[in-house]
Write a structure and sequence with these properties.
Elements: E1 9-12, E2 19-22, E3 32-36, E4 43-49, E5 52-55, E6 87-92, H1 94-97, H2 109-117, E7 123-127, H3 132-142, E8 146-150, H4 159-170, H5 174-178, E9 181-186, H6 193-199, E10 203-206, H7 213-226
Parallel strand pairs: 6-7, 6-8, 8-9, 9-10
Antiparallel strand pairs: 1-2, 3-4, 4-5
Helix pairs in contact: 2-7, 3-4
Length: 236
Amino acid sequence: MSQSAAETLAVTCPCGGHTLRLAPDKPPLGAKAAFTCPACGLRRTFTRTASGVAFDDVATAPSPPPARPVAKAPSLPAPTPVPPGAALVLTALPDISEGPAGPDGPDTPWVRAVAAAFPAPGWHVLPASHDARQIEADVRFHRPAVVLVADPAEGAGGDARAQALLTAVAALPGRAREAMTVIVLGAFATGDPLAAFGLGADVVLAVADTADAAARLGAARGATMAKPSYFRAEQG
C-alpha cells in the first residue's frame, strides 16, 4: 500500500523542474542520497536534515545537452549536359559567354582563339552559369580540362562568374586540380608569376595581346600537362 503525500518527503531539485517523493524515514536524518534530475540533467546530492534536505554546494557534471540539429547543406543542381567523351573548356569571359554589344556579336579574337585551340568534337566550350551553385556542380562533376576566365579584379561584366569558378576550382582535391589548366586573361604581363599565384592560376595572359592567341592557349595547356605529377604513385 502506498503512502499518502503527507507521509512522504518531497525533494525538489534546485532547478525547480522535478520533485522526488521519498518515504519520511528515507534517507535517515544526517544521511546522504542522490538522484539525477530528468529536467536539468544534473546529478543532485543532498543531506537529510531535521527541516527537510540540504543540497551539496557542488553538483557533478551534467549530462551533455541534446545535440542541435545540423543544417543540411543544400544539394547542388544537376551538372550542365555536355557532349559525351569531349574534353571540357569551362569559361567565364563576357565576350565568350554573351558577346559584346556591336556588329561583330560574339565573334571576338578570344572566342576565335578558344575555338581554334580547342576544336570540336574533341573539345566542348561551356560558358559558366550565372548561378554560383551551378558553377560548383559543373566543376565538381565535369572536372574541366581547361578553365579560362577574365581577371575578376577588373570587373568587366564577368567578374562574379569568374570568381565563383576560381573558388570552385580551388576547393577541388589536389589530384583533380593538378589535371586542370587554369588560365586567366587580364591587364598584366603574360606569364606574370605573382599574378598567377595570387589568382590560383597556372598561366596568366595579357588580354589585350590577341596575336597568336590560339597558339598561346594551346601552349598553356601543353606546359601544364608537361609538369611532373605531385600525386603519381611511387614505383616500388
